[in-house]
Specification:
The complex is a heterodimer of chains A (280) and B (462). In chain A, helix 1 packs antiparallel against helix 5, helix 2 packs antiparallel against helix 3 and helix 9 runs antiparallel to helix 10. Chain A has 280 residues and is mostly helical. The longest helix of chain A has 35 residues. The radius of gyration of chain A is 19 Å and the shape is flat. By secondary structure, chain B is of the alpha+beta class. In chain B, the strands form 3 sheets. In chain B, strands 4, 5, 6, 7, 8, 9, 10, 11 and 16 form a 9-stranded antiparallel sheet that branches. In chain B, strands 1-18-17-3-2 form a 5-stranded antiparallel sheet, with helices on one face. In chain B, strand 17 and strand 18 form a beta hairpin. In chain B, helix 2 packs antiparallel against helix 5, helix 5 runs antiparallel to helix 8 and helix 8 runs antiparallel to helix 9. Chain B starts with 12 loop residues before the first helix and ends with a helix. The chains are: A mainly alpha (280), B alpha+beta (462). At the A-B interface, helix 8 and helix 9 of A face helix 2, strand 7, strand 10, strand 16 and helix 9 of B. The complex binds protoporphyrin IX containing FE. Protoporphyrin IX containing FE (HEM) sits at the interface of chains B and A.
């Protein structure tokens, strides 16, 4: 199938982009940085084609459905959204150095996806719904924003330590990174983007569950974990907006929040059981 | 704000303490994190399983303890609900606490850019022009009006300066009410649903109708209409995976058909606030013809048995009755036996025996021994559709609250109340002088960036 080939190529390109972003951080050469961004753009373009192709091929098979319905497809989509959201934010906030902490995700996720069966299966009745797309897309774009905040927060922790240890060293490796204050602010802004999306994702999911099963909330492990993630980021936002939690404590909450996100997405499927047998 | 607030002397000490406790952001962060931790426990310990199942995982002592603590149905336990109630109370009190401040923020104060105000603004720009004041004023209104489309408040002060106050996004201050009250509305919706609604389940045979159903709580609900299942169909993909379940339903009242609709998974039918969802299906043997076969393979006779009735087996003194039918029968060794009919054989003397006859393995019953065995000759199934039934008058509140919540969060994060002051005066040398400064209640950096091009173009006025 053409889509598998394209997904394979995009995995390879993401790997290449990851290596370039890490080298950029290590060697601080502008050329490397540009190449890193370009190759990530390349990876996104190839993967966009792969997703489109898979969609098209499903129609050719007479199944015709959005490619968002099993573990393989959701992982691929997750990788794609992280790469895309990261690129948008890199442009907006000028944070190319963060790439070394975020771009490994698309590659690792695609590599992990390749371990899952990737044949195009038709949809069981419960998944035949227009809510599927809005639910999955909003959740995943939200998750991707949290992933970027996670990368930024890790970088913040390193940077804040170095600023404390040697406050004035603009020419050094650490001086090359954005200031701790800027990282802190970006870490917050990305969460401010992810939180409304996660909220929409949870609400559309509840609405869909109500249409399909007649219950908008049944405390199934996936639902519960998405609520946990939501609580953690709500706590983050309150602590930040009203108690002025910034810097280290905010960064740690952001890291905890993304760990919970990953568990919500993968851990629940692998370890706990529930209604969501697929990766949405 | 605090200056014009009267000192609250009427409050006794402890109400102040409770008030402070409920409005404390520490409590909110703590509650949100504690609710997360409790919910994690609820996903690790499986919820609402039959008690026997827990004994497979835990020691009997542990099961007893967990059961007493409510850990097996923890989302309905008093302590989980108490946390939610505390959250609701905290939100209520917080909203009351903030009400005055937020409303005060909506009022127009400080219409004039005087020295005090100027000092409190982050950056203030003064531009001098060699143009008449009227020209500058006209240009200014045009340029600033692009960003602040509303009509400014114009004031002429004693010093004959002209002062303008622009603002926008004032009502974004109300986002606080939207986000927080929405959560109370969602809670309220859930409460209304659990007090005034019910969930139930009902099977309807093709061609038959029901007018009552059993709720999950085990109560019988009478409907003031009938639901009829005209047909049920299940379709499968070549791989055997389900493709579509469809029930053609009619709602009847006083014998008249009111609605007819084919429901599917994801496309239920609602009538008078009660919704019917496609949930499962099955079949019950209606009329069955069973061959009675001698061990040598020759036919002894055929019995036709309606479901559940004892029928004589020709040529022997035994009787037989159809008891059950399964689409996927599991054989004693655990393997899949496919479609199977459960019959009970009653010998003249002694105990009845339960016998499974496999449709796809007709001679399966031969292994039972005896001088004859049974084989299904013909089976007519009466299909039924299984419907989940839900009445939830609180649902609408939940959706209303959800939309409010999303709107509130969006407004809170992406909008702010922006204010801009401009004053114009003629300085001692007769030049026109414009002073401009602004502020926003959130995200001041973004506001400053937004102002830059406006100030630049003001500077370029000539
Ligand atoms: C799950 C429950 C809650 C959610 C989802 C939530 C959501 C939010 C959101 C989205 C904001 C930002 C809104 C804004 O800046 O105007 C916010 C701010 C705030 N929340 Fe909550 N909240 C919750 C519970 C609470 C509770 C219980 C309290 C009261 C103790 C509270 C007090 C505040 C305060 C004081 C602000 C700051 C408003 C400001 O200064 O701009 N929140 N909340």
């Amino acid at each position: 199938m053409t889509n598998s080939l394209l997904f394979g190529i995009s995995t390879f390109v993401y790997f290449f982009a990851m290596v370039l972003y890490i080298s950029y951080l290590a060697f601080r050469s502008d050329g490397l940085g540009k190449a890193a961004t370009l190759s990530l753009v390349g990876g996104v373009v190839v993967e966009t084609a792969a997703i489109g192709m898979r969609w098209y091929e499903s129609y050719q098979m007479g199944i015709g459905r959005a490619p968002l319905t099993n573990m393989y497809e959701s992982l691929a989509f997750f990788a794609w959204t992280i790469a895309l959201i990261y690129l948008v934010l890199e442009r907006k906030f000028k944070i190319r150095t963060v790439g070394a902490f975020v771009v490994p995700f698309p590659f690792i996720i695609m590599a992990y996806a390749s371990l899952n069966p990737n044949d195009i299966q038709p949809l069981v009745p419960a998944l035949q719904s227009n809510w599927l797309i809005s639910h999955v897309v909003t959740c995943f774009v939200g998750y991707a924003a949290f992933a970027v905040s996670f990368g930024v927060s890790i970088l913040y922790l390193f940077k804040a330590r170095s600023e404390k240890l040697s406050p004035k060293s603009p020419g050094s490796f650490w001086g090359f990174l954005p200031s701790a204050a800027a990282l802190d602010e970006i870490g917050y802004k990305t969460i401010a983007i992810g939180f409304p999306l996660l909220t929409i994702g949870i609400v559309t999911g509840a609405f869909w569950a109500n249409v399909a099963w007649g219950t908008y909330w049944s405390w199934d492990p996936k639902e519960t974990w998405s609520l946990i993630v939501w609580f953690i980021y709500a706590a983050y936002l309150h602590a930040r907006i009203t108690r002025g939690w910034r810097g280290k404590r905010a960064a740690i909450l952001s890291i905890v929040g993304f760990s919970a996100t990953i568990f919500c997405y993968l851990g629940v499927n692998l370890i706990l059981s529930g209604l969501h047998s697929y990766g949405g | 704000m605090s200056a014009d607030e009267p000192v609250k002397t009427t409050k006794t000490d402890w109400t102040t303490k409770v008030w402070d406790f409920l409005t404390s952001l520490k409590l909110v962060v703590f509650l949100l994190l504690i609710l997360s931790a409790l919910s994690i426990a609820g996903t690790i310990i499986q919820q609402n399983k039959p008690l026997q199942e827990y004994y497979r995982f835990y020691q009997p002592g542990t099961v007893a303890l967990f059961n007493k603590l409510g850990l097996f149905d923890m989302y309905h336990s008093w302590w989980f609900l108490a946390c939610l109630a505390l959250l609701a109370m905290s939100i209520t009190v917080c909203t009351m606490d903030r009400y005055r401040g937020i409303m005060a923020g909506l009022r127009k104060r400080n219409l004039i850019l005087d020295e005090d105000l100027g000092n409190s603004l982050q950056d203030l720009t003064t531009i001098k022009y060699a143009l008449p004041l009227d020209t500058v004023e006209k240009k200014m209104l045009e340029l600033v009006g692009k960003g602040f489309s509303g009509k400014p408040v114009a004031t002429t002060a004693e010093d004959s300066g002209r002062h303008y106050f622009f603002e926008k996004g004032k009502y974004s201050r109300l986002a606080f009410f939207l986000t927080h009250l929405s959560i109370l509305i969602i809670f309220l919706g859930a409460l209304v649903g659990s007090f005034f609604g019910y969930k139930g389940y009902v099977n309807i045979f093709e061609g038959e109708m029901i007018s009552q159903l059993e709720t999950r709580a085990g109560k019988i609900k009478n409907l003031n209409f009938q639901v009829k299942c005209n047909t049920f169909n299940a379709e499968f993909y070549p791989s055997g995976a389900p493709m579509d379940y469809r029930s053609d339903l009619s709602i009847l009242q006083n014998g008249k058909e009111i609605i007819r609709k084919t429901i599917r998974v994801n496309d239920p039918l609602t009538f008078e606030g009660i919704t019917f969802y496609q949930s499962s299906y099955g079949g019950q043997p209606d009329e069955v013809a069973i061959d009675v076969v001698n061990r040598d393979g020759s036919l002894k006779g055929t019995v036709t048995a309606p479901f559940g009735q004892k029928v004589d087996i020709p040529g022997v003194a035994d009787k037989v009755a159809i008891a059950d039918y399964q689409e996927h029968h599991h054989l004693p060794d655990g393997s899949e036996g496919g479609r199977a009919l459960d019959v009970h054989v009653y010998p003249e003397k002694g105990e009845e025996t339960e016998v499974w006859l496999l449709m796809d393995n007709p001679d399966y019953d031969k292994r039972r021994g005896g001088d004859y065995y049974l084989r299904v000759k013909d089976l007519k199934l009466k299909k039924y559709t299984g419907l989940q039934v839900n009445k939830d008058p609180g649902e609408i509140l939940v959706w209303f609250g959800s939309v409010m919540l999303i709107a509130g969060i969006m407004i809170a994060f992406f909008m702010s109340h922006k204010k801009l002051w401009v004053s114009l005066r003629t300085d001692r040398k007769g030049r026109s002088e414009l002073t401009i400064g602004g502020t926003a209640n959130k995200n001041r950096d973004a506001f400053a960036r937004e102002m830059e091009p406006m100030i630049q173009s003001l500077k370029e006025v000539s």
